[in-house]
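Input record, target 12 of the design panel.
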């Protein structure tokens, strides 16, 4: 069933009796061409593009909870492509282009809002670094605008320009960046994949991998064993625990990243604003709540909750750059489990186990990467060759010395 304004009008006049479920609730088959472990944004996007772009529809997505229960529904909804290094920037720019056509692609309102992302700079050295980053972005085809203090003040007059400790000297603005409704992304991809024949199996936890002479030939689940020609894992913060079941160790640590939403306020934040002298980022939702976050909690955990010191640290960063939010009341908070790689960049690659593939290590960049991650992972699964923008995202790059050290965009080794 396709959604449209005419369909909404028709259903409204007929008592809304014609709506159908967004996706099916099928029983597991005994065998699939591809089994995707993880029903978050990346897993669902992979299934969608496998079916749509590669005509591989005998696919199952296995989710131990419910669709959208993981990191795809536990983030601050920011999308951007303001990266620097050649191993990252073309990939995230591809993701930005896919975001721009996403709602038409899967016929679902994901509330893509390209209001811009502004990174503030507070020193001459930081401004020079932003000039370099902006030039790198433009060379890859992305958009970047360098603003001076006056330009930032015109855009965000509410910032603390009188702070002698953190003077605002300008900023790097990406007009095409912005926010997207996080859970709607999961629902849209689930609906898109299901409409092409993909089975989405919720409450189906993977308990082990079926091996035959060292080759992965399927999975054991809480709903029975399932054979597969290829098994693709993308489980974010649970990557280490799941891959351990196949006897693999990953260069990944799991950390909590907290996010916060304030009470609803009148429109005040024009887009996304990030504090350059600390780790603080903020935007405003369509409901009026201020959505913000900061650093990871700094200790290994699989719990979707955080601790008070980081709450204080995040709020201190917010108060330093925009004291006007000091009286806003916190409405809710949550934690996502970040799969932090040691160089801050992700993996989309085959493993040493034939038939087993891995997607993870996204650090802070997982949500914004969702479309490109699914696109490139689907390409890898369909062709057994990496997509041209994901060739550097290899599992063996630490062994070969080809790290993608995107400083300031991924992991912070001092917190590991």
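The sequence produced for target 12 reads:
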């Amino acid at each position: 069933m396709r959604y449209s304004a005419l369909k909404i009008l028709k259903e409204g006049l007929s008592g809304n009796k014609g709506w159908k479920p967004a996706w099916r609730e099928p029983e597991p088959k005994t065998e699939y061409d591809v089994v995707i472990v993880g029903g978050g944004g990346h897993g669902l996007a992979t299934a969608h593009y496998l079916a749509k772009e590669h005509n591989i529809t005998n696919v199952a997505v296995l989710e131990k909870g419910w669709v959208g229960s993981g990191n795809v529904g536990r983030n601050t909804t920011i999308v951007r492509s303001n990266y620097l290094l050649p191993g990252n920037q073309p990939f995230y720019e591809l993701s930005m282009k896919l975001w721009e056509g996403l709602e038409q692609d899967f016929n679902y309102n994901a509330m893509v809002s390209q209001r811009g992302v502004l990174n503030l700079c507070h020193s001459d050295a930081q401004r020079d670094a932003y000039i370099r980053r902006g030039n790198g972005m433009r060379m890859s085809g992305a958009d970047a605008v360098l603003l001076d203090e006056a330009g930032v003040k015109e855009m965000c007059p509410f910032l603390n320009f009188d702070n002698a400790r953190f003077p605002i000297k300008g900023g790097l603005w990406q007009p095409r960046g912005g926010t997207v409704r996080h859970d709607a992304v999961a629902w849209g991809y689930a609906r898109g994949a299901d409409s092409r024949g993909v089975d989405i199996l919720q409450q189906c936890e993977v308990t082990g991998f079926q091996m035959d002479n060292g080759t992965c030939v399927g999975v054991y689940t809480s709903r029975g064993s399932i054979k597969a020609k290829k098994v693709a894992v993308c489980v974010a913060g649970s990557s280490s625990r799941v891959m351990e079941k196949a006897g693999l160790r990953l260069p990944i640590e799991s950390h909590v990243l907290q996010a916060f939403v304030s009470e609803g306020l009148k429109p005040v934040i024009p887009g996304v604003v990030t504090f350059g002298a600390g780790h603080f980022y903020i935007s405003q939702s369509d409901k009026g709540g201020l959505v913000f976050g900061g650093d990871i909690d700094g200790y290994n955990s699989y719990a979707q909750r955080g601790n008070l010191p980081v709450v204080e640290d995040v709020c201190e960063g917010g108060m330093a750059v925009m004291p006007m939010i000091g009286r806003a009341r916190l409405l809710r908070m949550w934690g996502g489990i970040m799969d932090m790689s040691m160089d801050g960049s992700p993996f989309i690659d085959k493993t040493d186990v034939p038939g087993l593939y891995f997607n993870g290590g996204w650090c802070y960049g997982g949500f914004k990467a969702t479309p490109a991650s699914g696109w490139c992972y689907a390409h890898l699964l369909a062709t057994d060759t990496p997509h041209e923008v994901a060739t550097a995202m290899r599992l063996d790059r630490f062994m070969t010395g080809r790290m993608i050290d995107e400083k300031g965009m991924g992991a912070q080794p001092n917190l590991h």
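The radius of gyration is 21 Å.
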